[in-house]
Amino acid sequence: MPGNHETPVTQYxxxxxxxxxxxxxxxxxxxxxxxxxxxxxxxxxxxICGGTQAAIDALRAAVxxxxxxxxxxxxxxxxxxxxxxxxxxxxxxxxxxxxxxxxYDPERTPTRDxxxxxxxxxxxxGTERSRHPAVSFSANGPDAKAILAHQPLEDPFGxxxxxxxxxxxxxxxxxxxTGYDTCTGLHLAERVAWGDRPLxxxxxxxxxxxxxxxxxxxxxxxxxxxxxxxxxxxxxxxGLSRIGSVGYATTRLLSLRRITDRxxxxxxxxx
Length: 271
What we know:
By secondary structure, the protein is α+β, with helices and mostly antiparallel strands. The chain has one domain. The chain is 30% helix and 20% strand. A 7-stranded mixed β-sheet has the order 3-4-2-1-5-9-8. Strands 6-7 form a two-stranded antiparallel ribbon. α1 packs parallel to α3, α3 crosses α5 and α8 packs parallel to α10. The termini are far apart.
């Protein structure tokens, strides 16, 4: 049966088109030339005529040829299986997985749990992708290469990182049908707030090096998203988010610089 996802057609009054999404984005405040970090939950937009292609066409039309779109392109399965929990794997499987897991490849490694639009965007003509095996970003537009140029293996959300470049470029954050719990941009505020936090978590991934495929162990700053929703409530209350809709999805548009500067003082003090 034709369709672009499992959402029942009868749930909506009419289909969502490129023209409608582009108009919704403009009314919300997305402007030509903008640099926008986009989070999407496709199923909440409605029945999209054209599916992921239409959604990306609308986003590209909203920012125009001089604008740049950025999306999280995380691949959290390219990590040490010793730390997997959704689902965990047997201990005796772990060395087998480490030895057999294909090396991270920005062009071929798929995203995981990022949604259909982010995965389609990763494969979109002209899209670039950063080189972090677990928490990469993809970008399409004139500023893509500059945004993705530096993402340290052991500090992918700090300074420098794609998020810090987006902060410097005064990028916007667009959350289409998603909540603050998935707002990747808040990780920059977290890193600024907890810059000296000693707690780190071990990880590893297969990477291509001059010696071929190698398993690389590394550590990451411990991240804690449990405060993101409460911080988002403050951001909404203080008027730092512009709330509207894209299709049928509740949507927020924010300034990454403004929410970082505000959120960094809202994280609780940690050792």
